[in-house]
Amino acid sequence: MKGLEQDPNPREETITLHEETASVSPFGQMDWHTAFTPDRIAIETTTGGVVSERLHPKASFAGHVMNTPWDPLQRA
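The structure assignment produced for this chain is given below.
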């Protein structure tokens, strides 16, 4: 529905409730993971490089309806 395919690789998600962070690994490629805080979403490499990022990620959903396609950062 959101226009993104799910690969069959197993994933691990790490969430810290008091710090409001989350990470999913792998994401997209085996050496990539997500890095989420309420003010930033990023896809990063395991060596710390930034593949893609968006500040204020919630704002990117403005105007979306049920079948609006997502980009990889929105999925993250």
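Interim note for the steering committee: Residues 24 and 69 are 20 Å apart (CA to CA). The chain has a mean pLDDT of 93.
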